[in-house]
Amino acid sequence: MRTVPLGKTGVEVSVFCLGTMDFGTHTDPETSYELLDLYVEKGSFFLDTANVYARWWPGYVGGESEALLGRWMRERKNRSRLFLATKVGFEMLGIERGLRAHQIEEKCEKSLKRLGVEAIDLYYAHRDDPNTPLEETLEAFYKLIKAGKVRFIGASNYPA
User: Fewer CB in a 10 Å sphere around the end CB: N or C, the chain?
Assistant: First the structure.
């Protein structure tokens, strides 16, 4: 699989990133596993999820995609060969939308647990939070990096 640089991090990721938004919900676990296995079999290794995936489907609350990925990685014993991205910032059951420091820290811990990993390779701010100073958001991400819980950070759905 062809790889491309992840910004200026010095890390290369597979040119195709597999989004797993509906894995474990609208896409049943068996089909999700088949798609993940095929993706890796073809030489790719960059997976994208988010803590809210896929709370919008009836009967689900969010976290299902991360939990499915965690089970799949444990069963396949392949975490070390993958580059894993997840996101934070949208509301979930009992947690309001936002990027306050306490929200980022709490949600990161829950994502790490669902994924069954010690560190997230790429942790995105899933959306802009105009009510939180950017300095607070970035300081929270920095603390996670210093603690070894996150390797790199990114931003998604921010207005230009």
Answer: C
Residue 114 included in any domain:
yes
Q: What is the three-state SS of 134-154?
A: HHHHHHHHHHHHHCCCEEEEE
Distance in angstroms (rounded) separating the CA atoms of residues 79 and 90: 26
Indicate the SS3 state at residue 62.
coil
Beta bridge partners of 27: 23
Is residue 160 one of the residues assigned to a domain?
Answer: no
Question: Is the sign of the CA dihedral 83, 74, 156, 30 positive or negative?
Answer: positive
Which residues are catalytic, by number? 53
pTM over 0.70: yes
Rounded Cα–Cα distance for residues 40 and 76 (Å): 11
Assess contact for 33 and 5: CB atoms under 8 A.
no
> Does residue 140 belong to any structural domain of this protein?
yes
d(CA 18, CA 3): 14
